[in-house]
Automatic annotation (TrEMBL):
PANTHER family the UniProt entry points to: DNA POLYMERASE EPSILON CATALYTIC SUBUNIT A
Keyword list, A-Z: 4Fe-4S, DNA replication, DNA-binding, DNA-directed DNA polymerase, Iron, Iron-sulfur, Metal-binding, Nucleotidyltransferase, Nucleus, Transferase, Zinc, Zinc-finger
Highest taxon of the lineage: Eukaryota
Entry GO CC: epsilon DNA polymerase complex
Family according to the record: Belongs to the DNA polymerase type-B family.
Species this chain originates from: Nothobranchius rachovii (bluefin notho)
Enzyme class: transferase
Documented EC number(s): 2.7.7.7
Record GO biological process: base-excision repair, gap-filling; DNA replication proofreading; leading strand elongation; mitotic cell cycle; nucleotide-excision repair, DNA gap filling
Cofactor: [4Fe-4S] cluster
Protein name: DNA polymerase epsilon catalytic subunit
Gene, per the UniProt record: POLE
Localisation per UniProt entry: Nucleus
Reaction(s) the record says it catalyses: DNA(n) + a 2'-deoxyribonucleoside 5'-triphosphate = DNA(n+1) + diphosphate
Length: 262
């Protein structure tokens, strides 16, 4: 915050509303009402008069996993106990599987959405689940899953699960029932911007209601004229080997140039 304040981006601290043009965003962590650290994104705005401010928007990072057929509830129960304190929420959602040979038919399968309070928690859980998923997927045959779903759809059955029963619910280690992971590698600030449709270079109304409530950021479609930000551009020229990127260990800097509002 101190560094941002030097450049004029003071954090909104008093409840109120402002209109600003979004110029940048950056992942951060803030304290919630229970004094717990949670992940958020700082959004940087320029107002019409050139003044600046920023506001933090908390958002739970997440990714999806898929299980073998009819094992979703057992896996949810297992994960809630194994990762207690790390996983903030577990829920089952139907999603389209674009890996199927003919996903345009509209077949869906159940995915388990794991939500977290912080990105660090997400990374820790992902590291434990990923090796099991890789091993389990080696045993799966994608054509069998597609055939099973299509047959179920044509017969009027439930098509929200994709994989054959295979290994049953009686498996002691439910990690062996997890066969897929999705959207685990989407950068956190990109994830939030996609889900909430908050993008740079647009005008927004920002309503801050205090630290106990999340900020409201609403797009202003009626404002199109851009403000006049101060732009700093720079370039570094170095030596390098043919067809190689510069190496800081061996290459030399030839010139550093910069321009402000040029």
């Amino acid at each position: 915050d101190d560094m941002d304040a030097r450049f004029g981006f003071e954090r909104m601290k008093e409840p109120g509303e402002k209109t600003g043009w979004l110029i940048n965003m950056h992942p951060t962590e803030i304290l919630d009402e229970d004094r717990r650290m949670i992940s958020a994104v700082d959004y940087y705005f320029i107002q019409e008069d050139g003044s600046r401010f920023k506001v933090a928007l908390p958002f739970k990072p997440y990714f999806y996993i898929a299980t073998r057929k009819n094992c979703e509830r057992e896996v949810i129960s297992y994960l809630s106990k194994k990762f207690q304190g790390k996983v903030a929420k577990l829920e089952m959602l139907p999603k389209e599987d674009l890996d199927l040979p003919n996903h345009l038919v509209g077949l869906k399968r159940n995915y388990i959405k794991l939500s977290f309070n912080t990105v660090d928690d997400l990374i820790k859980v992902k590291r434990e689940i990923a090796p099991a998923v890789r091993k389990n997927r080696e045993r799966e045959q994608s054509n069998d899953s597609y055939t099973s779903m299509l047959s179920s759809a044509l017969s009027g059955g439930n098509v929200t699960s994709a994989y054959d029963d295979g290994m049953s619910k009686s498996i002691v280690d439910q990690l062996e029932n997890i066969v897929d992971m999705r959207e685990y590698d989407v950068p956190y600030h990109v994830r939030l911007s996609i889900d909430l449709k908050i993008h740079v270079a647009h005008w927004y109304n920002i309503r801050y209601r205090g630290s106990a409530f999340p900020s409201e950021i609403v797009r202003r479609e009626d404002l199109v004229e851009r403000p006049d930000p101060v732009v700093l551009a720079f370039d570094i020229e170095t030596t390098k080997l043919p067809l190689k990127f510069p190496d800081a260990e061996t290459d030399q800097i030839m010139m550093i140039s910069y321009m402000i509002d040029g």
